[in-house]
Amino acid sequence: MNDKILDIQHLNVQFKTFEGKFSAVRDVSLSLGRNESIGIIGESGCGKSTLAFSIMRYLAPNAEMDGNLIFNGKDLMENTDSEMDKIRGNRIAMVFQNPSTSLNPALTIGFQLDEVGIMHQKLSKKDARKASLDALALMNIGDPKGTVRRYPHQISGGIQQRICIAMAILCNPDIMILDEPTTALDVTTEAVILDSIKSLKDKLNMSLIYISHDMGVINKVSEQIVVMYNGEVVEQGPKAKIFEHPSHPYTRALINCMPRGGVVKENAKLNTIKGYVRRRGIIESGCPYADRCDARNDTCEAKYGMRSIEEAHSAACDRAYADDIEDTIKKKRKPRVRAVAPKQPKTILELENLHKIYGTRRKIYAVNGVDVEVNSGTVMGIVGESGCGKSTTGHMVAGLYKPTKGSMTFDGNDITRGWRKRTPETLKDIQLIFQNPGRSLNPSHTVEQIIGRPMQTLLNMKSKEERREKIISMLHKVDLGGEYLTKKPNQLSGGEQQRVAIARALSISPKMIVCDEPTSALDVSVQASVLNLLNDLQHDSDVTYLFISHDLNVINYLSDTIMVMYAGKICEYGKRDEVMSKPFHPYTEALLSAMPEVDPTKQKDPIRLEGGLPDPAKKPKGCPFAGRCHKQVGKICEEQYPPMVKFSDTHYYNCHIAKPEM
Amino acid sequence: MMKYLLYQLKKYPLAIVGIAVLLLWVIVAIFGPMMVSHTHTAMDSTNQMAGPGTAGHLLGTDSMGRDILSRIVYGSRSILTVALMTSIFSTVLGILLGFMAGYFGGKTDAAFLRAMDILMAIPPLVLSMVVLGIIGDSSILTLTLIVSIAFIPATARVSRGVLLTEKSQEYVSAARIRGESHLYIMFVEILPNTTGPILVEATARFAYSIMMVASLGFLGVGLQPPTPDWGMMVIENKPIISQAPWAVLFPALAIASLVIAISIFSDFVSKVLIHER
After folding, report:
1. Rounded to a whole number, what is the distance in angstroms from the first to the last CA of chain B?
2. Which one of B8, B177, B192 has the shortest CB-CB distance to A419?
3. Which of A202, A384, A488, A617 is 20 to 30 Å apart from A29, CA to CA?
4. ipTM greater than 0.85, yes or no?
């Protein structure tokens, strides 16, 4: 029995709010063995983080919890606060999502690390520093002695997160809880961190609780998987079992709704989960997922509870494994027919030697020469890690910023200028959809005002009735109804907000829509439905998309052509299939290999990219990727900007490595 | 909304006291003068410096036999009028100036900030006192205008601050790239999202205005007789404080209760609005 380090039994957490009590975690039981790794997965609002905090008994004052938390044979619920203080950080450590906010910006890394040793283990200053350096070395940080003297802002996000993990392992804890530690990081950085987490676990004989919304990430680090929905565990079991035979309809839907492994818009519609996670009051009973479930029947309300499927694998669904569920979930994968016959493609947008330098005194070189043409009626995907200049490029096209150098031609007109100097015609023709719908919709305006205003100013539609009619038809197009007219953005879920934003962009029939990471802030199930919607609308209206994303799977699903950017330059450009199947640029290759794979049978070894983006404040010289490249050919990489190598008429890349013989 | 207010009231029961006292004063200001037995100037020569409870003079009289209660009741009218108008004026002017400065940024903003620094270097009380002294006119209107101007640095800075946080929001970018005018963006897009902090500042200004009007009255440059003024009552009756302490005590209590009530109310407003956002 002592192989269990943590045993959670019937844990409930409720929050008291002015609308009454609502329950965030309900009757959760799970156990964690020594040196075992559990992955907790679920969408936002499913109680994953609350569960993590309640293990530490570190909750907001309006929370009430009951149940048992047996840690090392002792119930943590009986501990006093001062006893808990000895456990928090010391025996159970936690790593948070955003490393830049968990480190104190005013103190050096060394000071913050040493503090842990001095506080928890009563080490002398000298010993604490030695322990800190060891921990940093364990996290593969290149120069520990240099790092401890720096401040958090002098260090990249990936290293910051590694420092947070180093801080967590300083006391050699029994359990480390990681709450979405890589969500805010780029995929290449994520791959490196996941690697080091895995190796740490074995080196230090720790148990891990890893919280994520990403199946692929969980797949990499965990042996056991716990699927949570609306505060309840709906399925748990060993990784292989869950991926091979996902039993709860929610688990299946979650795995199915991700665009991955070769799913492209021509051959499939993404699976979605209807609705969204509802906030549950305390009185409700029955299956929490019933309202969104495709396989629901009359017994769902009454018969509810965990049942074992086979050893160590259980799911909270009576109908797990029922054959008819299989059919309803693997549905709608049929090729689609284009509603409008594609017109003869012509170049609609042409970017020539586009540069953007921010700032006057301290310069930031954001975009350093982008040349590209976009055909009308197609989707061009721009992909790259954060800071690669993809958003800046999109914003320049949309008119938010004026390019520093270069030119932009749209539909035969020169649009190399900011919004202030654009004609209403151009403003109407190029629309922008932002990443965060909660911020791009004015919180004090109603949906009617939000969608109606562009019609009023750019289409000159004066009559309110006429506008309302069109708004309602737009709302129907984005799968919302007329009842949304009077709602305000904060009354809508994230997915609904983004639909309203899409309706606003489309309502004035633009020729091009710049989509700046429109699904990054959304849950996977909602992402799938928004992607479907964007795809359908493009089919019907023949609008051109400039689709910006850091997620190659999303780009792969939606794009016709792909442009890979790095440090403000194009690395590789080509038709989707060309880039995805024959990535040539080492950076594209690294990006592709870093994508976490959901299928456990298809595990691959990622190319590990060390270091970060080149300093954007320095004028670029040579190949920007040279410092991190695993295929560097020599000095030439650092000194000369690589030439463009043409693979085919549509596929080219910029690299010193010569074109391979076909 | 109602339910939410009740929930907040339950959480901060002190707010009930604050709101009740404030409401009481508002009712007194509106209906009081119709109910008291004397006017504020009527002198009762038989009852000079009469103690509280003397027939017909619930709170006593001053050295000229004027009824303290009546004077406080009449005085509440002028002080609330001036304070309310001042808080509205200074807030509106503050929004206009602060929004222009924050929105356009650059040189406009720098000029604005320096001008505000200069104004702020002089304490509002000293500034109003000097200006009122020079003008030599202390009608309700001039008093309101001058106190409002003295308050502008504070309200304008708050408005500028909240505008700056809102200005970086994407809905502003969205409005820009559909070609909206500056005025539309400032007042239709941004203003409704800044009401919380601005309202909190306005209620706080309300309390400050009362302090200010009372202080100016105390210093002799506030509202001039025969307009009754609480601050003036305190200074008028100071010489007789040993014989008739009530003549000083009650107006002072009136000032204190109103200022404290508004401060509590202002705290409550900020709690409600900040939680809501």
Report:
1. 13
2. B177
3. A202
4. no
CA distance A290 to A299: 10
Task: Report pLDDT digits (tens) over A134-157.
Answer: 999 888 887 888 888 989 888 888
> What phi and psi, each to the nearest 5 degrees, are found at residue A17?
-130, 175
Q: Is A410 strand, coil or helix? A: strand
Q: Half-sphere exposure of residue B56, counting CA atoms within 13 Å on the CB side?
A: 14
Residues 184-223 of B with CB under 8 A from A: 189, 192-193
Chain A residues closer than 8 Å to B169 by CB: 439-440
Q: CA A366 → CA A358, A398, A401, A614, A619, distances in Å?
A: 7, 16, 12, 11, 10
B4 touches chain A (CB under 8 A): yes
pLDDT in tens, A435-487: 888 889 999 999 999 999 999 988 888 889 999 999 999 998 888 888 899 98
Q: Scan for tokens 């842990």, then name that residue.
A: A116
- Average pLDDT over chain B, rounded to whole? 86
Q: Answer yes or no: are the C-beta atoms of B9 and B269 closer than 8 Å.
A: no
The counts of H helices and E strands in chain A are 23, 24
Which residues in chain A touch residue B189, judged by CB atoms under 8 angstroms apart? 442, 445
CA distance B176 to chain A (A): 7
Q: Name every chain B residue with its beta carbon within 8 A of the beta carbon of A435.
A: 170
Task: Identify which of A479, A520, A519, A516 has the alpha carbon closest to the alpha carbon of residue A500.
Answer: A479
CA dihedral over A310, A312, A313, A315, signed as positive or negative: positive
The H or E element containing residue A355 is: strand A347-358
Chain A positions in Cβ-Cβ contact with residue B165 (cut-off 8 Å): none
- Residue A448's pLDDT is 93
Q: What is the pLDDT of residues A530-553, one digit of tens each?
A: 898 898 888 888 899 999 998 888
What's the CA gap between B178 and A430, in Å, rounded?
9
Measured distance between the N- and C-terminal CA atoms of chain A, rounded to whole angstroms: 61
How near does any CA of chain B get to the CA of A394, in Å?
13
Main-chain dihedrals φ then ψ at residue A608, nearest 5 degrees:
-90, 120
What digits encode the pLDDT tens for the residues A388-433? 889 999 999 999 989 999 999 998 889 888 888 888 889 999 999 9
**Would the CB atoms of B170 and A458 count as touching at under 8 Å?**
no
Q: What is the pTM of this model?
A: 0.84
Candidate from A339-348, B192-201, B267-276 with smallest mean pLDDT: A339-348
What is the C-alpha to C-alpha distance for residues A134 and A658, in angstroms, rounded to an integer?
43
Q: Which of residues 439-458 of A touch B (CB under 8 A)?
A: 439-445, 453-454, 457-458
Query: In terms of Cα–Cα distance, which of A60, A149, A167 is closest to A113?
Result: A167
Task: List Cα–Cα distances, A528 to A253, A492, A510, A532, A534, in angstroms.
Answer: 11, 18, 23, 6, 10
Residues of A in contact with B12 (CB under 8 A): none
Which residue in chain B is spatially nearest to A432 when comparing CA positions? Answer: B174
Tell me, yes or no, if A434 comes closer than 8 A to chain B by beta carbon: yes
Q: Is the pLDDT of residue A326 over 70?
A: no
**What pLDDT is recorded for position B277?**
44
